[in-house]
Each structure stands twice: as structure tokens, then as C-alpha cells.
Amino acid sequence: MKRIFIVIIFSLLFSITNANNIADSIVIVRDTYQDNYLLAFPRKVIVTSKCRIKRFISELEKVDTQKNILTKFRVDVDLIKTKPEELLDLYDDRNKINYDWNVKQKEYIYKKLSNIDNYLDVIKIYFARGPMYSGHAIEYQFLIKIYHNGHVINSYMSQKRNLYGYNIPYVDKNGNNIYNYNVDKLINRLFNDPVKRGKPLRSMNLLKRLVREIISNNGGELFDMNERK
After folding, report:
1. Helix/strand/coil (H/E/C) assignment for every residue in 150-194
2. What is the pLDDT of residues 106-119, one digit of tens each?
């Protein structure tokens, strides 16, 4: 009995780690939400082309760790940790809060801007919203299931995004994150996505966007510290 159990576990592990060789189909379901309520018309696409299956799995196997996301998108982590005053200078004039920065506000926001965890939080918000903010109440989420002989050997769930957002990150059944925009592109082609959003921001452009999000998230506290309110 013990031997049979070991054989079953080994077979399962073998099938998962060799998905690229044995997968025979991929089913992708797009769920649509309105105001966080699931609408009753999911759309499904089935991929059976060996070439497409191989491409999908190759891209989905590029797992990321939560801590390397900023580096992957070329955000200067050392700058975040050591020079919050330079980060504040990135805050675009047209988005500035209606007051001059006083000492108390600067001390407060410097702590927020030098905390890596704050960037990890807002980068997911950026991906969900995309390059253009939309007040549209519709959101999309994708479930990817990889099959072999009718059995699911792996599955991935994207985050919810709005019309202009990105599907990344995808999370597999083991909790691994995949921040791979190439998967987005493959899915967008299959579902004939009409929105041309381009690649996610990188480097200083992305850092500038993240700084804006962090300051915006702390707008209430900063306003309370305004000596001229």
C-alpha cells in the first residue's frame, strides 16, 4: 500500500514538472464582474494547438518572488531605501496636493516612501488599473487550467483588472506569483482584447507612478498635518 502511494505521488509530481511535455489542452475562462458581483456569462477559450500550449506553459513557468518584483521592473530599490527626499521630487506638479510640504509632512511621507512594502502594495494596484484610470465598474479575471487526459495538472488565477489594466500577477495553485506580461499578450490575442494598453511601465516611469500612488493613499493624513488648512 505504501509503495502504491509513493508511485502515485511520484507520478503526480512528474506530471506537474513535465507539463510542457504532456499537457494536451488549456482551458481559459474569463469571468466578468460588475461592482464586485460576478455576471452570469463567463467566456471560455480552449487551446489545443501544441505550439500554443508549449508557449503558454513556458511563460507561466517563469515564477517570481514577491521581493524581486520591483527589481524585475527595474525600479531602483536602493533609491527607495536611502533617498526618500529624491522620491518626493518625483511627485508631479499637476498631481501635487494643495499645500506646501512642511517639516511634519515631510518626515511622515519620507517614512512611507522609504518602506518597500508600500511599493509592493501599490504596484498591484497599478497593474489592476493599467496606464489609464477608468471609473468603469466592469472588471475581468482569468482562470487558466492545464489538462492532461482530462485531469487538471496545474491552474493559474489572474488578479481582477479593469478595462485598461493588466492580468498580472497570475497565482498558481501552490501560491506562486507570475508577473509575466507575455501571458497577458497571449490571452489578449485569444480573447480579441480591443484595448491597446502597451507594456507595463518600468524604471523611473514606474517609480514615479508608484510614488504618486503612495502619496495619494496618505493624502488624508498629509492634509491633517497641513499648517495652513
Report:
1. CEEEEEEEECCECCCCCCCCEEECCCCEECCHHHHHHHHHHCCCC
2. 999 999 999 999 99
